[in-house]
Design goal:
Rossmann fold; globular; single chain
Length: 277
């Protein structure tokens, strides 16, 4: 059986660029651990306004920047920056846009998680990652998503990018955390999601209704190939929903052993369609 070679991490936050939280700590240590176990990795996060570019030595990648993404009939420039965590020998790519991230700190406080444009910020971030990976001409075996801002990834991969050579065989794993956004997404969110390949029937909520964290998480679960319980305590409704599907599920892992458990789970999810390769 073939084993996973390339893993793409899409992270809502990563330390040391943002303060230590459960998500930012996992997304700092997990990619390094997976890389040390012989995998090729790429890691993406948003470039929030409070990230000091000089201190963290971010620089723009001109060959990857310059695209516009249309969201709700408005063009938004996509800027790609990169930095290195020297101690981990790991690069981090940043998705940047002044409208969506300059005034956003991404530090998990109530004001940040209550912003009225969080819906469009999430769309821009996920689509920005997809388009950048295509430009890199790098084909991931596994995409591992961390944080509610990454929740749209499974839908986009399975529908909008289903026939794209960069993602045609990719498996998507979504981690469940106890982090939520406070203000429901705009009632027009369902319409903003529509792209070639995505229809209203593909979405588990209707246009005209506000969308909360549980709605968004269920959408991610519906299109994921694997689910991980990343927080010890998560919504009982979400946990029951995830376990009620036929999707492979990995329960909560202790901090001293989760990297190996996740690595094994990647191969389990990947191996479902590659058992005879």
């Amino acid at each position: 059986m073939m084993k996973v070679a390339k893993v793409l991490f899409i992270a809502q936050e990563i330390t040391p660029y943002l303060p230590e939280t459960e998500i930012s700590t996992v997304c700092r240590n997990l990619p390094q651990g997976i890389q040390e176990r012989g995998h090729e990795i790429r890691t993406f996060m948003p470039k929030y306004g409070n990230i000091n570019e000089r201190r963290n030595q971010l620089h723009e990648v001109i060959r990857l920047s310059g695209m516009n993404l249309i969201i709700d009939d408005t063009d938004h420039p996509l800027i790609i920056k990169v930095a290195s965590i020297q101690s981990a020998r790991m690069q981090v790519y940043f998705i940047d846009n002044d409208d969506y991230f300059q005034r956003c700190n991404g530090d998990g406080n109530e004001d940040e998680d209550s912003r009225s444009d969080n819906d469009e910020r999430s769309i821009f971030f996920v689509r920005g990652v997809m388009e950048t990976v295509k430009k890199l001409r790098w084909v991931p075996d596994i995409i591992h998503c961390h944080g509610w801002m990454t929740s749209l990834t499974p839908l986009y991969i399975k529908k909008a990018y289903a026939e794209d050579p960069s993602f045609r065989d990719t498996k998507v794993i979504f981690s469940l955390y106890d982090r939520a956004f406070k203000t429901p997404f705009d009632p027009n969110f369902a319409n903003k999601l529509l792209l070639d390949g995505i229809t209203p029937d593909d979405i588990n909520f209707k246009a005209g209704t506000p969308v909360n964290t549980e709605d968004l998480t269920k959408l991610a679960i519906n299109y994921s190939d694997g689910i991980i319980q990343a927080s010890e305590n998560i919504s009982p409704e979400i946990l029951q929903y995830a376990q009620s599907t036929n999707v492979p599920f990995l329960g909560y892992q202790q901090p001293d052993s989760y990297i190996d458990a996740y690595n094994d789970f990647y191969n389990e999810v990947w191996g479902q369609e590659h058992q005879n390769d």
